[in-house]
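Hallway conversation turned thread

IA: we were arguing at lunch whether anyone had actually written out MFS transporter end to end. Turns out nobody had. So, for the record, here is the sequence (519 residues) and right after it the structure tokens. Reply here if something looks off.
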Amino acid sequence: MGSTRPAIRETAQRTGTAKRGAVVAALMLAMALAALDATIVSTAVPQIVGDLGGFSVFSWLFSGYLLAVTVTLPVYGKLSDTFGRKPVLIAGAALFLLGSLLCAVAWNMGALIAFRIVQGLGGGALQGTVQTLAADLYPLKERPKIQSKLSTVWAVSAVAGPGVGGVLAAYADWRWIFLINLPIGAVALWLIVRYLHEPQRAKDASADTTATRARVDWAGALAVFACGGVLLTALVQGGVAWPWLSVPSIALFATGLALAAVVVIVERRAADPIIPGWVWRRRTIAAVNLALGALGLLMVAPAVFLPTYAQSVLGLAPVAAGFVLSVWTLSWPVSAALSQHVYRRIGFRNTAMLGIGTASLVLLAFPFLPYPGQAWQPTLLMLLLGAALGLFQLPLIVGVQSTVGWSERGTATASVLFCRQTGQTLGAAIFGAVANGVLASRLGGASDLDSVTRALDSGSAAPEATRRAIADAVHAVYLGASGAAALAFLVLLLLAPRRFPVLNEDDSRKTDVDLGVGR
């Protein structure tokens, strides 16, 4: 241990130079690629469909990308623990840029969807590896700085993405929303290659490079990818492309469950599994996984349903409705940056419980807003919600990353991000069914939120009965989201340890004592 501490101090000196700033800039640019992609495409859909056709399947532009990102997160997390962060990040960024270029030259909707999946295969590496590197480069006391910067990237992208996409689609060509990724990604890649250096890590006497490579669980990776893809497809398309109790839906869920059994068998036999059992055996990580899964679920309520509520119930224009939603991206990173002052006093768990408890109350207040109400009322609630979730998410991510060493950090980070993404997919399915059920009961027949929204988008004025039905549907969704927040609170209260078992900084870096920058 004595020989490692001078190396740790040397690493701190190296990462304290301006070269670390270049790496942080690269990470922010890489994260911007993934963050912008989530919003910039949506506003160009009319132009894309008008050029390529395929209106009946255009939703797969988003679903295909989401599926690819979600199912590859645990695979990239394990690969980054095995081969290092730098090669995985470079490969992911290159794959994302290749997908962007192919999307820009797509000749029909089928090709564009396929190339969006290629983008997603790279996007999974960007999201997971950037978060892991942020923990590698900064000690625990400084980690909130980089995490708040990454949160700011998401906030700016959420606000700027739709506007940039609309401008490019209207005044240039929709293909530029993909081509714009190329210069951003090229700068990020250059900075990573030039300034991020991972010196040779000390290996156990019983292990060599060949043995390490041989332990990569490629069979497990394929099984995880297939299982996740099938189950997420069933959740994304169920109730949309086909009824929940239809033959395609039942067949997909049955296939997904069978593949889940295959994953369990393969992973139990693997010497070094893609999803190791310790991810769920350790109380801290298991509790955070479940809590962030609930976060992904509750985030669907405002992200998906609030814009429709703002336009149809409050009568706002699309730009104003977007502002009502976007205000939570302003308070979220500010709250996340300040959360360190809270969790240093009361701990990671209690800070997260404070945040999610407040979020549950904010979500619960939404159904009690006056009808039809004024725009400042949901805007204020969204501002408070962002502040509450900033106190919730960041302490949990930083806390989990601080309980593991270098060799497990990629897997641990990927597991919490995977659960959050899966929660969002599950939330879209559950809350979509809830909203459609309320609308059908209020309006009669087979009314659903998509058909009502399309009718309103075509210029039809919303009758009073329709406005009230939409308000009731969104209120029901927010009640469900409040319940998800309460569930996350209970998970942390009952499962998470009161104090996270944070590793000593020296001990946590004994496997990566010289993860340096600018060597």
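OS: looked through it. Residues 70 and 418 are 6 Å apart (CA to CA).
IA: good, adding that to the notes. Residues 1-16, 202-214, 506-519 have pLDDT under 50 and may be disordered.
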